[in-house]
Specification:
Largest sheet: 8 strands, mixed
Number of strands: 8
Shape: globular
Distance between the termini: 79 Å
Structural class: alpha/beta
Strand order of the largest sheet: 1-2-4-3-5-6-7-8
Helix content: 40-55%
Strand content: 15-25%
Radius of gyration: 20 Å
Number of helices: 12
Amino acid sequence: MRIFRKRTTWLIIVLLCIIAPIAAFKIMETSFVISPEQMNNYFRDKPMPPRFITYKELNHQMFYATTGSDTNQLILFVHGAPGSWDAFIKYLGDTVLMNHAQLVSVDRPGYGKSGLGQSVASIEDQARMIQPILDANKSNKPAIIIGHSLGGAVIARIAMDYPDKVGELIFLAPAIDPDHEKIWKISYPANWKIFKWMVPPVWKVTNDEKLSHSAELKKMLPLWSDIHCHCVYMYGAKDAIVPPENVEFAKRMLVNAPLEIIAFPHENHFIPWTKKDSIIKVILNCLRK
C-alpha cells in the first residue's frame, strides 16, 4: 500500500508539473486578446467601429484593424511580443486621431489572426509581410509608424527596406540592441521538444522570436545608416525588460536620422498604456509636419 501511495503521489506531482504551466500560459494568453464583446463595448460610443482587413504576403495570411478615413495620413501601429492589434485599441478609438489620420494596427506574423502559432523569426520577412499596408496608403504622404518593444525592431527594418513609404518612426521602448537582448531562463527549456508541445501558440511564437532576436538584430547593423526619417524614441527609465542601453544604441546607430528622445523617469516597459496621452501628443505633432 505504501508503494502504491508513493507512486500515486509522484503521479500527482508529475501531472501538476505538466498541467500547472499549461494553465498559467492559458490564463496569461487571454490577457493579450480582447473578446468581440469587449471590442464592441469599447467602440459603442466611438464615431466608427474598426474595419478588419486580411491579405496574403509570402504565403502567409495577414490581418489588421483600421479606423479613420483612408485618404488621411496613415499611422501604423506594430505591437511587441506577445501581443495583437488590440494592444493599440485605445489609439484606434481616439476621436482626435481618428479625425486626422487613418489608424491601422496589425497582427504581426504568428499572432492573432495573422497565422497564430506560425512563427516568422526573420525581421526582414516580417517587414515585407507588413509593407502591403503601406502600399495601400492613399494619402500621398509617407506613413507614421509606431512600434513597441520587439515591434520597434520591425518598424526600423521597414524604414530600412522601404524608406520612401516612411515619414516618421516612433519607437516605444524598442528592443533594438543585439548586445543587450535579455533572454529569460525559461526560454530555453520551453524550446525543448519535450515541453514545446504544451506551450500555447502565442507563447511559442514569442519564445521563437526571443531566441532568434539578437541574431536578427545583428543582421540589421549595417542598415541603420539607411534610415533618414525623423525618429522619436520614448522609454521608461525603470524598464526591466528592454534595458536603457538601447537608448545609447539608437544614438550611435541613427547617424543619418534626426532623433528626439523622450524619457519617463518613473515608468517601466508598458508606456503604450501608461503614457498614452503623451504618446498621442507626439503623434499629433508628427501629423502637423
